[in-house]
Amino acid sequence: MYIVMVASECAPVAKVGGLADVIYGLSRELEIRGNAVEIILPKYDCMRYDHIRDLSVSYENLQVPWFNRQVPCTVWFGHVHDRRCYFIEPHSEEHFFERGSYYGFPDEHLRFAFFSKATMEFMYKTGKRPDVIHTHDWQTALIPVLLYELYAHHGMPDQRVCHTIHNFRHQGIVGEDVLWMSGLGRPEYYAAPDRLQDDFTHAALNLTKGAITYANFVTTVSPTHAWEVCNTDQGYGLGPTLTRHADKFGGVLNGLDYDMWNPGTDVYIPHHYSADDLSGKYADKQALRGRLMLQEAYKPVIAYVGRLDTQKGVHLIRHALFYALEQGAQFVLLGASPELGINDDFWQLKHHLNENPDCHLEIGYDEELAHLIYAGADMMVVPSLYEPCGLTQMIALRYGAVPIVRAVGGLADTVFDRDYSSKPMHERNGYVFHQADFAGLESAMSRAIGLWHHHPDEFHRLIRQGMAYDYSWNHPGRDYLNIYEHIRHL
Ligand code: ADP
User: Closest Cα partner for 135 from 145, 126, 127?
Assistant: First the structure.
């Protein structure tokens, strides 16, 4: 099958968050399975050009219609760690992608509407006729609308679109200027409740709603989150639209890059190990203690790695730290927040606990230390209030750190409580709590710490059961291919 992936990010060349990892990891898996995959991205000035091999001009002077003019673009081609990528570079006074950062500009909707339009023009004019176009998040949500309303009538009638929503909080609420600029026009037609009209601001258009309406299939990043966005406030108002299109909507769990995250080969950890021989993990625990100046003691190490964002349950992370110390465990935190208030709180906490030999807080982003923490920790807490998929719990499982998670989104799909899950005993892999309060968190943590102290053999068994799970791109790759096969024959 011939698949074109269109997105605003791709790891490691243009990465802001998890979206970038998905674009890279899914494309790689689809190629391993024998499909032809191309990725189309904006050519940002701030990209990591050192990760692109053989970057060269692929198409000169692509004229993209934009309101009442044509914007000339150069399309570049290069390999990002063997992935085939096109980069669209517009030459216009707006300097859409020459801003020094990926996001955060007042004309964001026009930047990405232009990218969507230019992508369609590029495919159209170069004769690219993929079986499936896979678009991601609001930045590329205009593509299914453009395809079905314009390009299907101009020689692209057979192309099908799958759209994935990674984050419902950002939906692309825009004005009708996007319609005029992109050549769609007709606001009275598009601003209808069953097309793009936003359900709350009736004068505005909602690009994600448009993608749900026009795409042949729509996914989000875990089955539980797919349910949550239809039935709770986590859909940020898109629940009714999704319910209306329920026959073409589902959740597909993201995968983890098992090459990058492999305790058997990880270059960032001093001792390698596997489920059959965990001795390297205990040596890594010692190395972690040495690096963070924690005392050597017969205590479990509990860790948190992640953004310090309200979404992640900041009050519960803080409580987990104090509760761990109270229960005679050690606690390690690695995280940062873009919100100054939250960062300051954790800096204060760090100073307050500075002399404590059982705890260490590292405020900042440190990829290398993150790997050592996953390897050295006995348990990881992920007490999120909201978690579309979540990678930390999957990495924890892969590295033999028992996850303690709140039952929300992808966490509920990947972690199964040792004591209460309905899964058979040998398939349980962690601890789960439900209420976002101290009592819930404490009950899960105390059970985990208790098992570590009183039944070490059982704890090891739990580690091995977790390591036996396959959360690589293997299964999600197959799931997406099934979806592509299905829509291809519509
Ligand atoms: P989200 O995408 O909401 O931030 P995920 O759990 O999906 O959360 O992914 C988080 C990823 O970022 C994980 O790979 C985690 O290890 C990494 N990460 C988060 N914060 C840090 C940090 N401060 N230092 C190093 N790695 C981090």
Answer: 145
